[in-house]
Specification:
The structure is a single chain. With 418 residues, the chain is mainly alpha-helical. The protein has helices at residues 6-35, 40-67, 70-90, 94-111, 114-123, 125-156, 160-180, 190-193, 197-216, 219-249, 266-290, 296-319, 323-350, 357-386, 388-397, 399-409; strands at residues 256-257, 261-262. It has a two-stranded antiparallel ribbon with strand order 1-2. A hairpin with a 3-residue loop joins β1 and β2 (261-262). The protein is globular and about 55 Å long.
Length: 418
Amino acid sequence: MKKLPAESIYYIRAATGELNSGLIFTSIWVLYYTVMELSLIEVSVLYIVLTVSNFILEIPTGIVADLYSRRLSVIIGGIFVGLAFMTVGIFPFFAIALLAGFIEAIGDTCISGALQAWITDEVGEDNVGNVFLRGRQVATPAGWVGVILSIGLAAWMNYQAPIILGGMLWLLLTIFLILYMPETNFKKNAEINRQSWRNQMKASSATFAEGIRLVRGSTTLQALFWAFLLGSAFADGFYKFSRAHVLQSFTLPTITLPLLGALKDNLWFGVLEMLQGLFCLAGAEIVRRKVKLSDRGAAARTLLSLSAMTTVAVVIFTLTQHFGLAMATWVIVGGLQNLSTPITEAWMNQNIPSKIRATLISMSSQAGMVGTLGISTGLGAFGDRFGVRRALGLSSIILLPMMLIYARKKDGAQNGCD
């Protein structure tokens, strides 16, 4: 069967993935707290299991993608992610959710790094920045559809329905990728495949060691890894604390619609996330037209500006007592975070060699998990002791060293081993 162009596949995959995320994550938090009646400690345990599993699996799955096939890694990952969410939707019990978290981690780590490395090889390093931005633009409206479907299905049926549907769509997407996803520029190591399992493990270790050597010899890669660590800590902390802050500090209006009746609490988070997507969509178009992302310094300069704006918005969100201003700044922070992701991905992919690209991207994801487990968990403990508003204010300080990193790299570098 004839394969489709790589860019088209990337955009379809990005849109479907975002649609699934809208379906699942608009409702899953409310499922945890209402249907499953989990405590804050139990929810924290769920995310610790997911994060630790991701941390352990990131490097092995990245090495497999570099040695064998990025396409195969993405396909396998989609199967595991789909099964995980279908399982937790059908069986909403704490023990099942823990198992589903581990299954999801297998899928996430198979996709992490491999998808970015695959499209970078297919379209080239100079073009991939615009592809990432266009992918974000294509995905955002699909995410809105997912949010609307999630709100409607939750009101019409229950919180489980959109989560199950999201898992099913992940499996259907995987079947589509099996049929139509190309892989034309990946240099598969035929010699590795003819070797014994022991020698293959040695080759995997050598790939990992090469990644470590490159990071140690490159100030740009070191800066990227620190940016991933700090950025992940901030994003995870703000994601959890901002929702708690909205629920604790403000009264959310109730809206009733014909047939559906009174809409549930996931409505407001869904609406705000849609507005974040709209903000990100406009920002991505501005960046795509005005910023030449093939210039490696341009990515750092853009990220510096986005981080500065995010810091100001977080401070206002934390301090204001005005509902409208709080919601507006919440939207701005989320939109800027979403916009930063494809730019960071472009900067990362420009500074690492193709043969170990998935491995290094997986290593950067591990750095992000360290930030999530260490800094974000510490902020959570601080918030339990001193209040969510103070934890939010403290989280904004994380952005300051990130801005310093971007400022030092804003003039660019000749290569990834500077």
